[in-house]
Amino acid sequence: MSTKEGTVQLQKKLLSDIVGFAHAERVKDSEEGMRKIEATLPERKVLVVLDDVDNKDHIKKLIGNESLNSASRIIITTRDTAVLQVRGFEGKIILYEMLEMDDAPAFQLFCRHAFGGDSPSDDYQELSREIVSSTGRLPLAIEVIGSLLYDYQNNKAVWEETSVKLRNIPEKDIVKKLRISYDDLDENQQEIFLDIACFFCNKSKNDATYMWTDCKFYPESGIQVLTSKCLIKILDNDKLWMHDQLIDMGREIVRLEGPNDLGKRSRLWKANEAIEMIRTEEVSKKRPIFK
Question: Do residues 240 and 163 touch, judged by C-beta distance below 8 A?
Fold first, then answer.
């Protein structure tokens, strides 16, 4: 939803699901799409789910300003509740803060990723509970750390070391906890991870694979490793997907390559920064800039 084209595609998908493909395909731009949605939603009973919204304009253009059908519900997930304050929206907004997982389901989720079952062996029982507690019982951290440790089921020292690392990270610093799994990747896998975080989330896996093959990153095995560690997913349409917190982590890793110097960063994903680099001719000898 970061581009006008992305918003229009989502408007078309919404209209297609509600009134049919032929009607949706006639949408030419986001303003026309919003008008059609405003004319459609009040007449229909719908459930719409908008995930990971970071711009209130996206909400406005997907549900409009008109009153919804009284039986309709819109579910929005966001890390910034300010985006829910859409000017002109007449519906009732109810906020629900997602809480951390309870102990039992959090432990079960960890075991499924770390052991492939619902419980650990006796000698890993206490250590497993320590690790789950240190993740803050956040589902993403549990999945990523559990998947990392799956490869070390016969190496208790690695588990103990991971537990110590987690305990030394502040409870709310999810990015540093996720970084443990990134640091366990080899150099080529890290390059692929950063490319997905900066450029290729929701992009074609095949297109990216051609580039990685040419760069000798061995993408077939690399993608398999990233998938098995729950760092990425392959969607049904063969597109790459990465959780937004992992994207944030990857981009922060790149930003720290040159906090105050764009020329030292291996990747530039913001158009204005790339243009600035071209104009000032400060590009260092890095890999090409891809969009």
Answer: no
73: which strand partners? 47
Integer Cα distance of 158 and 149 in angstroms: 8
Give this prediction's pTM.
0.74
The CA-CA-CA angle for residues 46, 47, 52, to 5°, reads 140
CA dihedral 33, 34, 38, 39 (to 10 degrees): -30
Domain parsing of the chain, residue ranges: 4-84, 103-183, 187-280
Which pLDDT does position 286 carry in this prediction? 55
Name the strand (E) or helix (H) holding 75: strand 73-76
Is 204:238 a contact under the CB 8 Å cutoff? yes
pLDDT digits (tens, 9 = 90+) for 150-164: 999 999 999 999 999
Burial of 56 (0-12, 13-18, 19+ CB in 10 A): middle
CATH code given to domain 4-84: 3.40.50.300
